[in-house]
Amino acid sequence: MRLEEVPVTEGCFWVGHPLRDVPIRRDTNALVVAIRDADRTFLYNPGPDHPLAAGTVLVVLGDRKSTRLNSS
Hints:
The structure is a single chain. Helix content is 7%, strand content 29%. It has 1 helix and 4 strands.
């Protein structure tokens, strides 16, 4: 297992969508354990309705063998 940071960049499909619409769990079986907002505040164990904005970083926990994580 390892922790990864996945940035949500400007122009990313995820911007403006709630966390539930992000396919990380489905595509990589990784779990979003925290969100770091652009102002560097952390939200641990975020709910599925949390909206994502450009500059947000998802902190995810996943198996080392999981598919490479990428928000593009």
